[in-house]
Design brief:
- This protein is an alpha/beta fold.
- It has a single domain, classed as Response regulator (Rossmann fold, 3-Layer(aba) Sandwich), CATH 3.40.50.
- It has helices at about 20-30, 55-60, 95, 125-145, 150-155, 155-165; strands at about 10-15, 35-40, 85-90, 110.
- It has a 4-stranded parallel β-sheet with strand order 2-1-3-4.
- The longest helix is centred in the last third of the chain and has 24 residues, at about 125-145.
- InterPro entries: Ptyr_pPase, Ptyr_pPase_sf.
């Protein structure tokens, strides 16, 4: 960002924070080149929820760090002292329809829906392929996001810029 070296904080939300939002967080942190800082959370992670091992495996095979990834509640980001978010993106339909906490600073929001790669009764190889496809779909949208010029990332424009990417 030209006027500041502060990265744009992006929070990816899903229901359990174990698959899609974790993939998006890791991808954007790897791709963002310091312009973005990604986080993820869930509206209702299960007790002792952990990132899906297949998601972690796909990230590692793609050469993307999984260090520090953990499932957590979105409540963590609505507390005093939490990082201020510039953009919040829901990546599953359930989270998109839920009543979100109050986010300080009124960040821009968008919904980028992806099917849950962990659902279904397929073989391990079929599930792994579902995670790979989801990773690539998220990566395509994030490539567009990070290539936006700085003026499209200013707070006033961020809402429409992020929502426009939902159709890609």
């Amino acid at each position: 960002m030209t006027e500041s070296t502060t990265p744009l904080n992006v929070l990816f939300l899903c229901t359990h924070n174990s698959a899609r939002s974790i993939l998006a967080e890791a991808l954007l942190n790897a791709m963002g080149e310091g312009r973005f800082k990604a986080y993820s959370a869930g509206s209702s992670p299960r007790d002792n929820q952990q990132p899906n091992p297949l998601g972690l495996q796909v990230l590692q095979k793609a050469g993307i760090s999984t260090e520090g990834l953990r499932s957590k509640s979105w409540d963590e980001f609505a507390t005093p002292g939490a990082p201020h978010m510039d953009l919040i993106i829901t990546v599953c339909d359930n989270a998109a329809g839920e009543v979100c906490p109050f986010w300080p600073g009124h960040p821009a929001t968008a919904h980028w829906g992806y099917a849950d790669p962990s659902e279904g009764d397929g073989s391990d190889e079929e599930k792994l392929e579902a995670f790979r496809k989801t990773l690539h779909a998220i990566q395509r949208r994030l490539s567009l996001l990070i290539s936006l010029p700085d003026e499209k990332l200013h707070h006033a424009m961020l809402q429409s810029s992020a929502r426009d990417l939902a159709s890609h």
